[in-house]
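Both lines are retained for reference:
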Amino acid sequence: MGQMDDIAAIRAMVEAMQRKLDAVVMQPRPEWVTVHEYAQLAGVTPRTVRNWITAGELKTYRHGSKVMVRASQDASRDRRQSLCNTRAAG
């Protein structure tokens, strides 16, 4: 009976995973995000993102009082570039 118990346990785990997958709602990543959201994506501070904007390194637009940053820009590349620039300057 040990093998039957193992199969029942596996079946229960598969069913639990299926329920979790069925509950997931996939949403596409937004095209534009706030400065704060982009900073979180890039792993830097909002001040750094604003510096990149001032330097013309990021595409942006104004939505009322908020500055929106194109999310599809490579945040990890931006972070590496910022770290390299910081090291070179210091």
About this structure: Residues 32 and 46 are 15 Å apart (CA to CA). The chain is about 60% helix and 15% strand. Strands lie at 32-34, 60-63, 66-70.
